[in-house]
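#lab-general

N.A. 3:47 PM
ok so I finally got the sequence cleaned up, no stray characters, all 189 residues accounted for. can someone with queue access submit it? mine expired

B.Y. 3:52 PM
send it over

N.A. 3:53 PM
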Amino acid sequence: MSDKKQESLIAKFRKKLEDNITNIENRTDLSDDEKVLRIIKTFAAGCAGFAVQPIPFADFFVLTPIQAYMGSRIGAIRGMPISESKATEIFKEIAGVVGLGLLAQQLVIGLYKTFIPFLGAITTIPLVFGLTYAMGKVMDLYFIQKIKRGAIDKDELRKMWSKMKKEGTDLGKKEKSKIMEEKDVNTNN
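B.Y. 4:20 PM
back already:
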C-alpha cells in the first residue's frame, strides 16, 4: 500500500473516530438519543470483536476500561461530562446493581474460551455485544436519572439490564458476521 493511500485511510479513520466517538456530543445532525445509540453500538461491536481473542477470563480486565470510556462518552452526550476514572466508578456502581447477571455472563464467556478454545471465542461475540449494549443502555438511564432526579432507581436499572441484555445479544447475533469481517480486515492490514 502506498504512503499516500495509507495516510488517506488513517485520515478517514481519524475523522470517523472523531465524528462517532470523541466529538459526537458536538454533532448537530443527530439527536442525543441517536448519538447515544451510535456510541453504544460502536463500543458493543468493538468489544465483541476484541473478545474473539482466545484467552479465558482476560476480557473483563480489558473490556471494563473500554466500557467505562463508553460511559464517559454517553455522559458527555447527556450533558454530564465525566472523566474516565469517574466513568469506571459508575461502571462499578452499576455492576453492583446488576451484580450476578454481569458476573455470570463473564464466567460463561471465560468457560467458553477454556473448554472450546478458538471456537469458544467466536461464540462469545453475541454475549459480549449484548453485555456491552446492556451496560451502555443502563449507563444512559443512569445519567438521565441523575440529571432529572439527582438519584438513581436501582430497580429500574435492573429491569433495563435484563431487557437490554436480551436485546443486545439478539443484535449481536445479527452483527456477528460483520464483526468477524471487520476483525479479519483489521488484523490482516
